[in-house]
Amino acid sequence: MVSVKNIRKSFDDNVVLKDINLTVDKSEVVVIMGPSGSGKSTLLRCMTFLEEPDKGIVKLGENEVEAAVKPNKKRKSSIRQLRQNTGFVFQQFNLFPHRTALENVMEGPMIIKDMDRNKAKEKAMTLLDKVGLADKVDHYPAKLSGGQQQRVAIARALSMEPMVMLYDEPTSALDPELVREVLLVMKQLAKEGMTMIVVTHEMGFAKDVADRVIFMDEGVIVEEGSSDQMFNNPKEERTKRFLRDVS
Ligand code: ADP
Ligand code: MG
């Protein structure tokens, strides 16, 4: 479903991603862990060309985009398609502050998919219900808790019917008591077969939900395996050290 081939990315002379290869199957849940600065966010951003990689290929379904080639019309449309088919949930919820929860979720389908207002509204209601916010549809973000805002952000990402969801530390900005409600929604989506790549340090989530755990450090994938293997029997010294530090 999703693959990243030989992705390299540097900022000036700082090589942040060193030929990363990653393939994720349909309905697979992959958790990425690693120390701060190891390149996790950059990898997710490169997957949607929010950052242009120096080289490599990103493939989503049949759509393949190669990095660092001359821009032309076809490429532009491939990148647009890549973004439309990818739901991105960030640490900071990035909701429109002057729109209600409902309007935040309606926006994408109406503007980008040209869906009519009533249909978009109906869809947004269904999605907000799904993330447990049926009674908050008319609230503005400022009136919602961090956990509720993040669930609106998840509903908003889902409104575009993405082929894959990317989460970049979705619970890191939340007060501890609000983490669980967001993880539960993510877990439910995983159960329903959503393909997901999740950068998180939530070990419980990884153990429960991940089909595969990847450990990144200094721009490379150091080690990957099942959560059982990664948490109970890591092979690499760097993985062991990291797990000791976060637990
Ligand atoms: P992580 O998400 O694993 O903490 P990042 O992908 O955010 O790591 O960052 C990896 C490295 O890339 C860090 O050294 C960071 O300083 C650098 N970096 C990330 N974004 C930029 C940028 N826009 N300009 C310059 N350096 C960046
Ligand atoms: Mg990051």
What would you note in describing this structure?
It is found in: Cell membrane. This is Amino acid ABC transporter ATP-binding protein. The protein has 247 residues and is α/β, with parallel strands linked by helices. Helix content is 39%, strand content 25%. The chain has 9 helices and 10 strands. The strands form 2 sheets. A 6-stranded mixed beta sheet has the order 6-7-8-3-9-10, with helices on both faces. It has a 4-stranded antiparallel beta sheet with strand order 2-1-4-5, covered by helices on one side. Helix 3 (101-111) packs across helix 4. It starts with a strand and ends with a helix. The model has no long low-confidence stretch (mean pLDDT 96). Magnesium ion binds next to helix 1.
What small molecules are bound in this structure? adenosine-5'-diphosphate, magnesium ion
| Classification by helices and strands | alpha/beta
Main pleated sheet: 6 strands, mixed
The percent of residues in helical segments reads 25-40%
Order of helices and strands: EEEHEEHEHHHEHEHEEHH
- CA(first)-CA(last) distance: 32 Å
> What proportion strand?
15-25%
User: Which quaternary structure do these chains form?
Assistant: single chain
Q: How many extended strands?
A: 10
Strand order of the largest sheet: 6-7-8-3-9-10
Indicate the overall shape. globular
Number of helices: 9
Task: Give the mean pLDDT.
Answer: 96
Low-confidence segments: none
Using the CA coordinates, give the radius of gyration.
Answer: 18 Å
